[in-house]
Write a structure and sequence with these properties.
By secondary structure, this protein is mainly α. It folds into two domains: about 80 residues; about 50 residues. The chain has three helices and no strands. Keywords: Membrane, Transmembrane, Transmembrane helix.
């Protein structure tokens, strides 16, 4: 009779003492590290709060008065440029947007591009669905609703 792989009826007292001692030490170390992390995090949070306060004061009282005239000039120029462009594009007025979009779709190559993309998109969709079916099968196998490797048992006889 082979003794390989056999478990004893009672645990070894030396290994029990070592493992419980190690578990107790790990628990103590975890508590000490959590306390140290809490102290360091509280100091770090207060330091971050002070730094953000300084950044806010510097932004509001130093940088904003300097940058405000430049921003007003830049935004005013950009808005005037867009207003001139809006006035000079006839497509954006008189409800011609839909007719131009329809013209682009039919004569600009939009319909041909969609016709070319149709088999590619169908292939991508089928591959996506196949992957989802495989993942769903794995979840069902983990829960126990489906036998492993598609092997079905009849009346509880047979195993996988």
């Amino acid at each position: 009779m082979s003794w390989v792989g056999k478990l004893t009826d009672y645990p070894n007292p030396v290994t029990s003492a070592i493992s419980s001692r190690v578990i107790a030490e790990f628990g103590t170390i975890s508590i000490v590290m959590a306390a140290a992390a809490l102290i360091v995090a509280s100091f770090l949070a207060s330091a971050v709060y002070v730094v953000t306060g300084f950044i806010y004061v510097a932004a509001v009282y130093v940088f904003w008065p300097i940058l405000r005239p430049f921003l007003q000039m830049i935004l005013g120029t950009v808005s005037q440029i867009f207003e001139i462009i809006w006035d000079n594009i006839p497509v954006l007025s008189d409800r011609e947007v839909f007719s131009k979009l329809c013209e682009f779709y039919t004569f600009g190559g939009g319909s041909a591009s969609l016709r070319t993309l149709r088999p590619i998109m169908i292939t991508v969709l089928i591959l996506f669905l196949i992957v989802r079916i495989y993942k769903k099968t794995q979840k069902l196998q983990e829960v126990g609703y489906m036998a492993r490797h598609e092997v079905f048992t009849i009346q509880g006889t047979g195993s996988c």
